[in-house]
């Protein structure tokens, strides 16, 4: 944790999941008061043996990873997520703080208010079950079908206790607390056994498929390198072998030399539309200094990021306009590409990718045959047009 005034307070929920408050307001940040730490819900421990229809108790089972023999990709089989919470009414929001005076609610946060809170997902696609091990097996007894437990961890990070807020509206002080939480969780999750990479991300908007409108993001600790990260590392390794350079560094320098796609600059950060942007709206935000991940950011870089991040989101929310010229809140996915835990750290460079499926007001970019079937992308615009629009709405 850096020198930012943030207090970290962990506790355990009724079913054994971890929850951590990150406070930046008084009387909590000084320790004069503490958020509620007990969870009154009558939830069984999530690892309690399950009694089947035959009356036999069996150990809790972890989600399963199956490897696609055609691509080599690991696919989590998490059928329990079919029953996860989906667009609940406002009075049943599980991410809202507890209602004052209520004896019991099914919300995830025990406190009646909070600044930022992180907790283990109740419906995770990756979960390390005690004593499950990590042994490789083969489905149907076939060597072609590798199977192993879907060990890992999935966390939820709530950006605000206000269900009507958004990340763009939290303000620099709260944004700084969120950055501290991201860095804290990246370091902690990366230190868990078997974890190969940590991904902090946010989905915003019904067009993206968000099932809870409360302002929140997620943090995944993967037991494997994702296909995207493998592709980035392959390119970075080839570039280094060919030139001796760091690909992320050389891309940033090239974008700065070109200048045409730069949309925001600060002392420590640069935002640009990438040269081969594939989404209708896409921006990368990168530090000026070569940094592998969020925990490696200095105090000054984190403080600057708290302001820059909000400036970028404000620009994106002015990208499209409605019939009367009113700004359209942009649906987006924002994710931090960080160095893996092990091999490849020296080839990696931190950057944020923000992109949207909205190609025009009321019109979405659907992944058609060549994109969904062949991963052969076709852009509906040009990076220079995206950049020009963002430059025009910058304030």
From TrEMBL:
InterPro entries: GalP_UDPtransf1, GalP_UDPtransf1_His-AS, GalP_Utransf_C, GalP_Utransf_N, HIT-like_sf. It is an enzyme of class 2 (transferase). It comes from the Bacteria. GO terms for cellular component: cytoplasm. Keywords: Carbohydrate metabolism, Galactose metabolism, Metal-binding, Nucleotidyltransferase, Transferase, Zinc. Its cofactor is Zn(2+). It catalyses: alpha-D-galactose 1-phosphate + UDP-alpha-D-glucose = alpha-D-glucose 1-phosphate + UDP-alpha-D-galactose. NCBIfam families: galT_1 (TIGR00209). It comes from Pengzhenrongella sicca. Belongs to the galactose-1-phosphate uridylyltransferase type 1 family. SUPFAM superfamilies: HIT-like. Pathway: Carbohydrate metabolism; galactose metabolism. GO terms for biological process: galactose catabolic process via UDP-galactose, Leloir pathway. Residues 242-393 form the Galactose-1-phosphate uridyl transferase C-terminal domain. This is Galactose-1-phosphate uridylyltransferase. The lineage of its organism: Bacteria, Bacillati, Actinomycetota, Actinomycetes, Micrococcales. Its EC number is 2.7.7.12. Residues 62-224 form the Galactose-1-phosphate uridyl transferase N-terminal domain. Residues 32-72 are annotated as: Disordered. The active site is at 216 (tele-ump-histidine intermediate).
């Amino acid at each position: 944790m850096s020198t930012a005034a943030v207090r970290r307070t962990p506790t355990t929920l009724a079913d054994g999941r971890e929850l951590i408050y990150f406070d930046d307001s008084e009387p909590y940040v000084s320790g004069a008061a503490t958020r509620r730490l007990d969870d009154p819900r009558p939830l069984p421990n999530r690892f309690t043996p399950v009694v089947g229809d035959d009356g036999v108790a069996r150990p809790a089972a972890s989600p399963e990873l199956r490897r696609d023999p055609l691509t080599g990709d690991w696919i989590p089989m998490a059928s329990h997520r079919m029953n996860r919470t989906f667009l609940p009414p406002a009075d049943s929001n599980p991410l809202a703080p507890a209602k004052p005076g209520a004896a019991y609610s099914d919300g995830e946060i025990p406190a009646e208010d909070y600044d930022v809170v992180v907790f283990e997902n109740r419906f995770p696609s990756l979960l390390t079950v005690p004593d499950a091990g990590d042994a490789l097996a083969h489905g149907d007894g076939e060597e072609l079908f590798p199977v192993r437990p879907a060990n890992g961890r999935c966390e939820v990070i709530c950006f605000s206790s206000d269900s009507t807020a958004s990340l763009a509206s939290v303000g620099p002080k709260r944004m700084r607390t969120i950055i501290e939480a991201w860095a804290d969780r990246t370091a902690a999750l990366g230190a868990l056994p078997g974890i190969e990479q940590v991904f902090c991300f946010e989905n915003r908007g019904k067009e993206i498929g968000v099932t809870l409108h409360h302002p929140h993001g997620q943090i995944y600790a993967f037991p494997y390198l994702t296909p995207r990260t493998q592709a980035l590392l392959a390119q970075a390794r080839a570039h280094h072998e060919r030139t001796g350079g760091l690909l992320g560094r050389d891309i940033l320098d090239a974008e700065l030399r070109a200048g045409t796609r730069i949309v925001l600059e600060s002392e420590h950060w640069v935002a640009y539309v990438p040269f081969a942007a594939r989404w209708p709206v896409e921006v990368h935000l990168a530090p000026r200094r070569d940094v592998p991940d969020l925990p490696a950011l200095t105090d000054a870089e984190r403080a600057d990021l708290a302001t820059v991040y909000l400036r970028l989101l404000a620009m994106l929310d002015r990208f499209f306009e409605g019939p009367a010229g009113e700004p359209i809140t942009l649906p987006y996915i924002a994710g931090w590409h960080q160095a893996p835990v092990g091999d490849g750290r020296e080839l990696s460079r931190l950057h944020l990718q923000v992109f949207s499926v909205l190609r025009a007001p009321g019109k979405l970019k659907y992944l058609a045959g060549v994109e969904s079937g062949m991963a052969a992308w076709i852009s509906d615009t040009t990076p220079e047009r995206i950049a020009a629009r963002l430059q025009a709405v910058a304030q």
